[in-house]
Amino acid sequence: MSNWSAENVPVLDIIELALCHRRFNCSAAQKYIGYSPVVSLEEGVALTAKSTQLARESSFSSYSDTDEESKVHKLLGGGKVAEILLWRNEQRTFTCFLLLVFIHYWFFLSGRSFLSSLAQLLLMIAAALWGYSILPPTM
Predict the structure, then answer these.
(1) What's the average model confidence in pLDDT over 85-114?
(2) What residues does the Reticulon domain cover (predicted)?
(3) Looking at the predicted structure, is the pLDDT value of residue 95 above 70?
């Protein structure tokens, strides 16, 4: 069993893995289970190109300018969560994304136990609130 963790992998290996080209071959599936693609590669590329052209020409790109809510917006409840998940306010969405990345790192990738991570986070919040409390009301 390998003992893989993020600390054991050099950064250059991660970058190389992210930048490498991947080509998938379905010949084994064709040979052993009789797989045949529903759409040929050429037809798939043509359909994809056609759909992206339709998306550019349609009202999807200018949808955010209208007042009508989308079905997805309604299904998500139509509130702040929907606005964030649908990237309607990009600054707020990016801030939430960075916050989630920070929380993920803080609790899961830092190598500390959950309780020690929680204790350090609460200590930082308490210190920040104390610092805020000693600021003058007007600057």
Answers:
(1) 84
(2) 81-134
(3) yes
Q: Say whether pTM exceeds 0.85.
A: no
Give the whole-angstrom CA distance, residue 64 versus residue 60: 8
Say which residue the tokens 């999807």 belong to: 60
Domain membership flag for residue 68:
no
Tokens of 138: 């007007």
Which residue segment(s) compose the domain that 117 sits in? 6-58+73-133
Average pLDDT, the chain: 78
Q: Name the residue type at position 62.
A: S
Domain membership flag for residue 21: yes
How many other CB atoms sit within 10 Å of the CB of residue 85? 13
The residues, any chain, with a CB within 8 Å of residue 64's CB and separated by 6 or more, are 88
The first and second tokens of residue 97, run together, are: 């994304």
Confidence (pLDDT) at 59: 47
* Domain count across the chain: 1
> Does any domain span residue 46?
yes
Tokens of 37: 């693609």
